[in-house]
Each structure stands twice: as C-alpha cells, then as structure tokens.
Amino acid sequence: MTKPIAILNGPNLNLLGQRQPEIYGADTLADVEKLCADTAEVLGTSTTFFQSNHEGEIVEAIHQARHDASAIVINPAAYTHTSVAILDALNAFDGPVIEVHISNVHKREAFRHHSYVSARADAVIAGCGVQGYALAIQRVATLLKA
Ligand code: DQA
Predict the structure, then answer these.
(1) Could you give the number of structural domains in the chain?
(2) Pocket of ligand 1 contains residue 128 by CB under 6 Å
(3) 3-state secondary structure of 71
(4) 3-class secondary structure, 124
(5) Which residues are 32's β-sheet partners?
(6) What CATH number is given to the structural domain containing 111?
(7) Is the entire prediction scored with pTM above 0.70?
C-alpha cells in the first residue's frame, strides 16, 4: 500500500461555499475533501486532508508529509503570494508537489500573479474550480506510476 497523498489548504478555504461564491463556487471544503477521497479511491490510492489559517501549521503539515505522504497537492491560498517559509518546507519534500488554485489567479489582481510555491511545484492548476483538486490527484497518480 503506497502512502496517501496529502491535500493541504491555506487560509480562508474553510469558508469555501460561503466566501465570494462568484469566484470560488458553491462547493464547501467538505465537498472538496470528499471529491479528493473519491478521486483517489478510483485510482487505487488515498488522501489525507488538512486546512489551516496559520502559516506555521501548514509548514508543520508539510514536514509531517515528509514521513507520511507520497505526494502533496497544495492550495496555499493567500500564502501562495507571500510565503517563503512554505516554499522552503516544500523544497524539503521529496515527492511530487502540485499547486492548485480554484480561481484563475492570472485573470485577477496583479499581486496574485506571482507564486513562491510555483518555484517548487511540478505542475500548477488554476481556474478549473474545485475540479482542479481531482485533476491534481490524477496527475500525481501518473507521476507516481512513472
Ligand atoms: C486561491 C487564490 C489566492 O489568490 C487566494 O488568496 C485564495 C484562493 C484560489 O484557490 O483560487 O485564497 O488560492
């Protein structure tokens, strides 16, 4: 049995479904957790799911993933655009890393166009809504098989 894929979510994503639904859609974070688990199951793997509004907790979740996870799918939310600490933690992780954004950050404000995390990510998915998480898990499965 391979290790699970760690799905990590940054600040304010706990409000998914309530927060700016015109940008982020109507699905809740619980819906995303189920989508990830169902997608992984079909592919013969599994997921763990984590969200935090605190940068240090996300760094620690990445450290934990060094031991417990085969890959990381991360939506760092606003920390995407600010966090060298999350980039450094991801650089200490050995497996595939996929960066996901629900919205198309490149269609939005200029400050969302730069991502620290993209310097480490093996792929970046933006603008596919919450389906981006499922696409990321499919990509991880392909990378882990290769
Ligand atoms: C986001 C995009 C970020 O710019 C924003 O701060 C978020 C969510 C997305 O999923 O589209 O909180 O990562």
Answers:
(1) 1
(2) no
(3) strand
(4) strand
(5) none
(6) 3.40.50.9100
(7) yes
